[in-house]
Amino acid sequence: MKKILLGLSLISSILLADTNQTLSVNPFEEIEKMQKQMDIMFQQMQQKFFNDPMFKNMQTSIITQPNIDLLKKDNNYIIKADIPGSNKDAIKITTKDNILKIEANIQKQEKEQKKDFIKQERFVQQYLKIITLPQDADTSKLKTDYKNGVLTITIPKKK
Asked: What share of the chain is helix, strand, coil (3-state, %, to 5)?
């Protein structure tokens, strides 16, 4: 969208310029000014969007895909998934037909009570990642480890 607007602006400034006179305006400077103005507009729009109470409620129901690394090391496949803030017991790993499914639910609730004032905040986060594993992965022998927000799954190769 930005590129289209910038292109239209450049074309209109060239068409409107008097062909007998040299162009005293640098079109690249004008494009840069417009881009900065549009960046400011988008930042303001984004701030209004994220501060809207309706969006805050929607944000708590969004399912996030954790970032993963899939490595092949010796006779194992190693998957590392970022699931920060989770409890080890809240992580569920299932496999079927060489498809690995990682699920995690994080729920936190904070209460702060002072004289004549009560503050209560809730945080809910869901993680879901589905990975197709190589055919030689032996999912019946997978091992897991969860430390510092990183889930490590080790799956040996079939012999």
From this structure: 35, 40, 25
Q: Are 133 and 119 in contact (CB under 8 A)?
A: no
Kindly state whether residues 98 and 77 are assigned to the same domain.
Answer: yes
Domain that holds residue 49: 2-58
Scanning the chain, the segments in alpha helix (DSSP H) are 2-16, 27-51, 53-59
How are beta strands 117-132 and 99-114 bridged, if at all?
Answer: antiparallel
Residue-wise pLDDT tens digits, 1-49: 666 665 666 666 666 555 555 557 788 888 888 988 988 888 787 777 7
Are 17 and 74 contained in the same domain? no
CATH code for position 137: 2.60.40.790
Find the farthest-apart pair of alpha carbons in the chain and give their distance in angstroms, rounded.
Answer: 80
Prediction pTM value: 0.56
Task: Quote the CA–CA distance of 146 and 153 in Å, as a whole number.
Answer: 9
Report the candidate in 82, 93, 97, 102 with the shortest Cα–Cα distance to residue 134. Answer: 97
